[in-house]
Amino acid sequence: MVLGYSQAMYVEFTTSQDLITFIRCHINAFKYFGGVPWTILYDNPKVVVLSREGQAIQWNPNFLEFSRTFGFSPILCTPRRPQTKGKVERPYRYIKQDFLLGTEFTDLTDLNSKARIWLDEVANCRVHRTTGEVPFKRLKEEKLRPLPPGEYTINLEEVRKVSKDFVISYEGNYYSVPFILAGKEVTVRDTGQELLIFYRGEEVARHAKVQGKGQIIRDPRHEAGLPRPSYPSRIAEVRESFLEHFPEAEGFLAGVVQAKAGNARYHLVEILKLLENYPKEVVRKAIARATEYKAFDARTVRNICAQHFKEPAQEFPAPPPVPTVKTTR
């Protein structure tokens, strides 16, 4: 973020471009500058504007609420007109050459700590080529709005349908809810640090958000009272059950029967048991990958699931009361 009059600059490195991160970076920049600009120019990112056709603009409502709370007006660049993009395009080369190249850091926190020192001691203390003055000195004359009192709470809500495996998918990861809510729609509130999950206005689950993709976060308490499936003893019934869950996996099933002969039932049952720990889509993809490898056994499928969908160890808070699911007519 670069201020128009003083040319004072704020830089922050992130691993995400989602709306919560975007808003958090804004707030950090406002605190660094000591106030809020009256207007801010954007190059039509999705976190700001959902769609635009000429002058018909559909703003992201969550971002619009944030801008109104802090009292600034968002302005959009004209598409395909680079001359309207303002001053923020120019510092990229300067940041890369003067700071990033050659900088060693251990993690994101360390990188941002070094970036703050660079801003304070180099970037905003130099004589700016355009103004001929030091940005920090001109910043004292910049007309900024005061920051609103208190802390701004970032809460984004979305509706998700609970899978048969009583998990919801959010940003590429899976989070469990009480098993009785399978097939229901729940509201997911993203606070940036946690996911709060509600059903009919009552909180039913709370999870710490995880980074990356493909992780399964389960609270063991969500399985309390869940009847465990029993598996048929005869191979013909096991094959029928397997195809009921994975109708597209006939080729894999045939491969197991041919490769394992009299031990085929064991491998098919072990794969079915994976559904107790992984969403069905996860197991389905693992079976497809194993078929590509021509590895017709339960161990391979289990390993593929474990490699791509990790379950991090974590402390679970005391579970909220599980709501009674009522059927209305």
Can you describe this structure?
With 329 residues, the protein is an alpha+beta fold. The protein has 3 domains: 19-139, Nucleotidyltransferase, domain 5; 156-223, no CATH class; 235-308, no CATH class. It contains 10 helices and 11 strands. It has helices at 19-33, 61-70, 91-100, 108-123, 135-139, 235-245, 250-260, 264-273, 280-293, 298-308; strands at 39-42, 49-53, 56-59, 73-76, 156-161, 167-170, 173-176, 185-190, 194-199, 202-208, 216-217. Strands 5-8-9-10 form a 4-stranded antiparallel sheet, with no helix packed on it. It has a 3-stranded mixed sheet with strand order 6-7-11, with no helix packed on it. A two-stranded parallel ribbon has the order 1-4. A hairpin with a 3-residue loop joins β8 and β9. The protein is elongated and about 85 Å long. It starts with 18 loop residues before the first helix and ends in a 21-residue tail after the last helix.
Question: Which regions contain 5 or more consecutive residues with pLDDT less than 50?
Answer: 312-320, 322-329
- Count of separate DSSP helical elements: 10
Order of helices and strands: HEEEHEHHHEEEEEEEHHHHH
- The total count of strands amounts to 11
| CATH class type of the largest domain | Alpha Beta
Major sheet attributes:
4 strands, antiparallel
Q: What value does the average pLDDT take?
A: 86
Structural class: alpha+beta
Query: What spatial form do the alpha-carbon principal axes imply?
Result: elongated
Percent of sequence in beta strands: 15-25%
**Within the largest sheet, what's the order of strands?**
5-8-9-10
- CATH architectural arrangement of the largest domain: 2-Layer Sandwich
Total tally of structural domains: 3
* Radius of gyration from the alpha-carbon trace, in angstroms: 27 Å
Ends distance: 55 Å
User: Which fold name is given in CATH as the topology of the largest domain?
Assistant: Nucleotidyltransferase, domain 5
Residue share in helix? 25-40%
